[in-house]
Design goal:
Radius of gyration: 22 Å
Number of strands: 13
Structural class: alpha/beta
Helix content: 40-55%
Strand order of the largest sheet: 2-9-8-7-6-3-4-5
Number of helices: 13
Bound molecules: 4'-deoxy-4'-aminopyridoxal-5'-phosphate
Order of helices and strands: HHEHHEHEHEEHEHEEEHHHEHEEEH
Strand content: 5-15%
Length: 402
């Protein structure tokens, strides 16, 4: 008798190699109403501009095109607004203004990352990623069959000197991914001289930098950092409306060299045809309303700064022995607890005590990070953050005399 083909479904070796996101799994647990969640990277619900979005939606819906399929590369008006906005940030550098043709709108910047990886990488290609790193990037690069090479971070962002050493020793990456400003999960920002050095290394060694920058506009202390893309042509910039308008719009974008933008657009045809015309029209309206957007950003920055200060102040008081980099923007505070603390083991007890965080090991690319925790301070007002720190202290505080 001929053996019947196995009916067991099979998945590709590449897919089998993708690590699940502990964070997305955690979101279910931390959604319990009795838990103050510092786990998800969620923008503050109380600061999302729902009324302004509703007005923009009503206005957009007067045009029948708002509920129609749209162009794969994105709504022309949004591409223009994003191009102007990126030009204002300095993305074009000495090359001059960013053109609408250089912009591809995507379903969140996560889709840009996925399509970019598929457009550029062949299985086995080396990709550099920061360690600890953005889990969504790690997943994308694993799914593309890349060989992921971790490079460390310090107070000033990616250790570009470590990358230079690896390159000198023969490493030939196709992509180097960096969350350049207010890093997820470390909270730190790539120093200006490292930005220049990274762009120069890209020119010299022929790799592309992926500047993943959803948080740059949320700067507490001054203007947003100058993009890495200002310093060279071999930089693909990813931007997002998620942290400054609303994640539910699912609007992000890629700005890059024409052949990269064209390849990403081509792959998007097969991925989802086009984005939501309606939410793109809303995003274009809000981003083009300069006075409103500037005021809204100001509100987000002030609230973020007050929340970060409240959280770190309470941690300083209640968790002696913990250290962190002072957040200067963005949404995350990376707590390092004394050696010997196991934040993964502590998490179930923390949830019992009514507080959630993401253990550092969830972001580890190379080694383990057992005594670290990522805490998102953006989602709650100061008094709730103080209560969260109090609850954290009940499970993470080092007993005196230890
Ligand atoms: N990049 C980084 C570094 C992020 O933290 C996130 C969201 N957590 C994204 C990209 C994706 O965001 P979105 O798809 O909502 O634009």
């Amino acid at each position: 008798m001929t053996p019947s083909p196995s009916s067991a479904p099979t998945i590709s070796a590449r897919t089998a190699g993708v690590r699940g996101s502990a964070i997305r799994d955690l979101l279910t647990l931390t959604a319990r109403p009795d838990v103050i969640s510092l786990a998800g990277g969620l923008p503050a619900a109380d600061l999302l501009p729902r009324e302004r979005i509703a007005r923009a939606a009503a206005e957009a819906l007067t045009d029948p095109g708002a509920v129609q399929y749209g162009e794969t590369a994105g709504l022309a008006r949004l591409r223009e607004v994003v191009a102007a906005h990126e030009t204002g940030r300095g993305t074009g550098g000495a090359r001059g203004p960013v053109r609408a043709a250089d912009v591809v709108v995507t379903s969140g910047s996560q889709q840009a990352l996925d399509l970019l990886a598929r457009a550029v990488l062949d299985p086995g290609d080396a990709v550099v990623i920061e360690d600890p790193g953005y889990v969504g990037a790690l997943q994308v690069f694993q799914a593309a069959g890349a060989r992921v090479v971790p490079v460390g971070l310090d107070e000033h962002g990616m250790r570009v000197d470590e990358l230079a050493d690896r390159l000198a020793a023969g490493l030939r990456p196709r992509l180097v991914h960096t969350v350049s400003s207010f890093h997820n999960p470390r909270g730190v920002t790539l120093a200006a001289e490292r930005r220049r050095a990274l762009a120069e290394l890209a020119e010299r060694h022929g790799f592309l930098v992926v500047e993943d920058d959803p948080y740059g506009l949320l700067s507490f202390d001054g203007p947003p950092p100058e993009p890495v893309a200002a310093h060279g042509e071999r930089v693909v910039r990813l931007g997002s409306a998620s942290k400054v308008l609303a994640p539910a719009l699912r609007v992000g974008w890629l700005v890059g060299p024409p052949e990269i933008a064209a390849a990403v657009e081509l792959l998007r045809q097969g991925a989802d045809l086009c984005g939501s015309t309606l939410t793109q029209a809303i995003a274009a309206d809000l981003l083009a309303d300069h006075d409103w957007f500037a005021g809204h950003l100001d509100t987000l920055r002030r609230a973020g700064a007050a929340r970060a200060a409240a959280f770190t102040g309470a941690v300083a008081e209640l968790l002696p022995g913990a250290t962190w980099s002072r957040p200067t923007g963005g949404m995350f505070c990376w707590l390092e607890l004394p050696a010997g603390t196991d934040t993964t083991a502590a998490l179930p007890r923390a949830l019992e005590a009514g507080v959630g965080f993401v253990p550092g090991s969830a972001f580890a690319v190379g080694g383990a990070l057992p005594s670290a925790a990522r805490c998102c301070f953006a989602s709650h007002p100061p008094e709730v953050l103080r209560e969260a720190a109090r609850r954290l202290a009940t499970v993470l505080a080092v007993p005196s005399g230890r």
